[in-house]
Amino acid sequence: MINWTSLETVFLDMDGTLLDLHFDNHFWLEHLPRRYAEQNNLHPDEAKDRLISMIMAERGTLNWYCTDYWSERLAMDITSLKSEVGDLIGYRPHVASFLQALKKTGLQSVIVTNCHPDPLKLKLQRTGLDSFVDGIVSSHQLGRPKEDIAFWKDLQQLAPYRADTTLMVDDSFSVLESARSAGIAQCLGILTPDSKQAARETHPEIPCVHHFDELLTSIHQQRSLHQKSPLPSAG
């Protein structure tokens, strides 16, 4: 599924890939509508419909992910509201084992996320995720979402990489398609980003897994063989 021996860099999405997307889905679909209804004296269903309409109108743009944008537009402190349900922030299954395996291989691992820096800070405080990887880049640092093909060229400024030796792992097929179009050699999709929802259907052209335990054996085997391969003969 993945040719680990050809890689130098592994880019990893965060929400829905390393962390359970249930936190974000619960916040945007349940907690925020409830608090928005309270603030604006609306029926919860009306508040939810109104919010979803506004949010969907920004899909695929940086505003979709921007805490500052939504705080200003809704006149609510989104980061503080997220902290109210911060106990839901957690890892997806087998993530720690997968990241530890990556570290042992010597591959460079970088989280590349659309998450705004404020909720990113909250999630790192809750999980210690930053201790497992070599770096973290938020798309807000570059002013473009990962869905924008130009993002991948700009990413070189903060996380230099060679596209032909790079893997991108993400639960968003639109992001993976953007990465492929930008020349990223290998892409991998996540089918179960939210622990409370059923798995998604596979992508017709992008390999996918449900959980990272499906990759552990191949990482160990391929990298072990690669490291043990004999040097070329001098004669």
TrEMBL record:
Keywords noted in UniProt: Hydrolase, Metal-binding
Cofactor requirements of the protein: Mg(2+)
GO BP annotation list: DNA repair
One MF term in the entry's GO annotations: phosphoglycolate phosphatase activity
Pfam families: HAD_2 (PF13419)
Protein origin, superkingdom: Bacteria
Key word Hydrolase present: yes
Hydrolase found in the keyword field: yes
GO CC aspect terms: cytosol
PANTHER family in the record: GMP_IMP NUCLEOTIDASE YRFG (PTHR43434:SF3), PHOSPHOGLYCOLATE PHOSPHATASE (PTHR43434)
Protein name according to UniProt: Putative hydrolase of the HAD superfamily
Species of provenance: Marinobacter antarcticus
